[in-house]
């Protein structure tokens, strides 16, 4: 029988499948349904080449945001239409990567989407959660492993101290490397997958590939041997980049910490094929608002929907750090820092074509000082609940007191911890690597660890490391940010009433 033979009677569909199919169809327009037909033919050809389609797996990455919720619904409809058309269909592996910045509201949205798409209890669906290296079956209230929270917290603090709390490197660099690890695990876990659906265009995929290869070459990696290994080889290069990044971030003596952050890259014996749906769907929320809000039950939470993201509270934390930096480093005030960050965030929302009403929804939270106070209270509580980050920890991050042999130590103490000023030389001796045998020094270290949120070994590493110079491509951190489009030069008036320009990044 020809692979594209059509079963036009739809007898493979059970009553439940038929009912769900009929519920979904009205939410997709003619162009999307035409794309479903084209993709079903393409996918059937790919999947039926060496085994029954019903034994083959297709991966959909699901972050829990508005766009990926649409993608999951699209692939679920594709799964049902293939069953109707060919009498068999693929197993749909839906993988969600979590980190500490994912609020409970995101898990609640995922749960609602799974319920509405009737994925629970369907043996043609694998619903996975990947927390760093932990792979679990999805549960709405699944606890986050403590190991993952510890890694997230340490990375935020170490990146933050090196970059004065700049948004992207503080929160996104480690997270983006974790995304690569997620794909390595999701693609090869338990027999692996045959196809990966992606929303990136082929041109975007080429650009990513070129950027990764270029970065690998720039930092001295031998990338030639990995070129022929497809996605497996690409993840190997990303692992090499990541390991260089973390060795640079932590400094000498942290080999175990770096190993914890290695990227899984599977094997080259079973390489998944990537299928893009970029040309076949619209990611404009306005184009499928009824599907997302009515059928899937997606809700825009105050924390989960932060500026350009609808599945992560970290962008709100980026704004918060900017406010703290204005108040405690630039000596203006918290509100000024928030308005500075809004210059960037507003432009990013426009670039990402966030609908006007959703932009208004976000910006309304920052419309005046009272509104800013309310969101500040929420994000301060979230920072503690998610990462065990206190306000003192975050003020220290943006103040960078340890880097460059404690260049800003006295300034930070003068502005935030005057009681420790008399101990500054003792602190320098400890940070330099002096012993802590005396009770007095142990007490001093304990207090400092509480303020900073890091153990002494990490603080000493920061002391012997430098603040990142983003104008110099000499570090992996600055190299990553160099071509990052999520940044902008903002203008503000400093404590000396001078107009200053500064390039900041965020989401």
Indicate the topology.
Elements: H1 15-24, H2 30-47, E1 57-61, H3 66-86, E2 91-98, H4 104-116, E3 125-131, E4 134-137, H5 146-163, H6 167-188, E5 195-198, H7 202-218, H8 230-250, H9 255-260, E6 273-276, H10 289-295, H11 314-328, H12 334-351, H13 356-364, H14 369-387, H15 391-399, H16 403-406, H17 409-416, H18 424-432, H19 439-452, H20 456-463, H21 476-482, E7 487-493, E8 499-505
Parallel strand pairs: 1-2, 1-5, 2-3, 5-6
Antiparallel strand pairs: 3-4, 7-8
Helix pairs in contact: 1-3, 2-3, 5-6, 5-15, 6-8, 6-11, 7-8, 11-12, 11-15
Structural class: alpha/beta
Query: How much is the radius of gyration in Å?
Result: 25 Å
Number of extended strands:
8
| Total number of helices | 21
Distance between the termini: 51 Å
Give the helices and strands as they follow along the chain. HHEHEHEEHHEHHHEHHHHHHHHHHHHEE
Give the integer mean of the pLDDT values.
91
Described by the principal axes of the CA atoms, the overall outline is globular
Report on the biggest sheet.
6 strands, mixed
**Strand ordering within the main sheet:** 4-3-2-1-5-6
> What is the strand content?
5-15%
Overview of the molecule:
- The protein has 507 residues and is of the alpha/beta class.
- Helix content is 54%, strand content 9%.
- It is built from 21 helices and eight strands.
- It has helices spanning 15-24, 30-47, 66-86, 104-116, 146-163, 167-188, 202-218, 230-250, 255-260, 289-295, 314-328, 334-351, 356-364, 369-387, 391-399, 403-406, 409-416, 424-432, 439-452, 456-463, 476-482; strands at 57-61, 91-98, 125-131, 134-137, 195-198, 273-276, 487-493, 499-505.
- Strands 4-3-2-1-5-6 form a six-stranded mixed β-sheet, with helices on both faces.
- β1, α3 and β2 (91-98) form a beta-alpha-beta unit.
